[in-house]
Design a protein that fits this description.
Elements lengths: L15 E2 H14 L10 H11 L3 H9 L6 H8 L7 H28 L4 E6 L22 E5 L3 H8 L3 H12 L11 E2 L1 E3 L3
Antiparallel strand pairs: 1-4, 2-3, 2-5
Length: about 200
C-alpha cells in the first residue's frame, strides 16, 4: 500500500518521517556518556579501539562493520604506531556506534519506561512555503506541537538497537495512534523531542 503522505513535499512542505527523527533522538541519548572525541583524533580513535577490543562482542561488531585487519595491524593501531586509513576510521566509528547502541539499549529502555513512560513532543510539518489553499490543517496545542506519552518503549528501542528502520517505523506509528484520528498528521514532522 503506498504511503498516503509520501508526496507532502510537492507543494513546498518540509519534514521527515517522525520515526527517523525519534531514532536520531535515541542515538543522541545513547551517545551521552559515550566517547565524544571524533574518531579522527588520537584520543577518539584510541578510546573507540579500547571499547571495541575489550570483549568478543566488540570484535564481532568490528567484523560486522567490515574491519578485517591482521592482529598485528590492530595492535599497532592500539599502540599508536600506525594510523588506520580513512575507510577504516569510518568503519571503526560505525562499529563503535553499533556496539554502543546494543550495550545501552537495555539501560535506555529502563529510563524511557520509568515513571509511566516518557512524554514526546512532535512538531508538525513546516508548511510555511505551502500556498494557503494547499495547506493541511494540523491539530496542535497552543505551542504549535502535539504531546504524547509513550508508556512502553520496548518495540521502539528493540528496532532501534537492531537498526531496523522498517520495524522502528511500524513501532513508532503504532504509538502515534494514541493521538486519535489525527495520528497520520504526525507520521512526518519537522522535529521530535523527548528525554529520559
Amino acid at each position: 500500500m503506498p504511503d498516503r503522505t509520501m508526496n507532502f513535499g510537492l507543494y513546498g512542505a518540509h519534514g521527515r518521517k517522525s520515526a527517523e527523527l525519534a531514532g536520531e533522538v535515541l542515538d543522541r541519548l545513547a551517545i551521552e556518556g559515550g566517547i565524544r572525541s571524533p574518531v579522527t583524533t588520537r584520543r577518539g580513535l584510541t578510546a573507540r579501539l579500547n571499547y571495541l577490543t575489550n570483549s568478543p562482542a566488540g570484535f564481532e561488531a568490528m567484523r560486522e562493520a567490515g574491519i578485517t585487519v591482521a592482529r598485528g595491524t590492530l595492535r599497532r593501531w592500539l599502540q599508536r604506531k600506525q594510523t588506520p586509513s580513512r575507510d577504516n576510521l569510518a568503519r571503526i566509528d560505525a562499529a563503535y556506534r553499533a556496539y554502543r547502541r546494543r550495550n545501552v539499549a537495555r539501560h535506555l529502555l529502563q529510563r524511557l519506561n520509568a515513571r509511566g513512560g516518557t512524554r514526546v513532543e512532535i512538531q508538525p510539518l513546516d508548511q510555511s512555503a505551502v500556498a494557503d489553499p494547499r495547506k493541511r490543517v494540523i491539530a496542535t496545542d497552543q505551542a504549535g506541537f502535539r504531546r504524547l506519552r509513550i508508556r512502553r518503549w520496548d518495540r521502539i528501542v528493540q528496532a532501534w538497537a537492531a537498526q531496523d528502520a522498517e520495524a522502528l517505523a511500524n513501532a513508532w506509528d503504532d504509538e502515534l495512534t494514541d493521538l486519535g484520528s489525527q495520528w497520520g498528521q504526525y507520521e512526518y514532522a519537522t522535529s521530535v523531542g523527548f528525554s529520559a
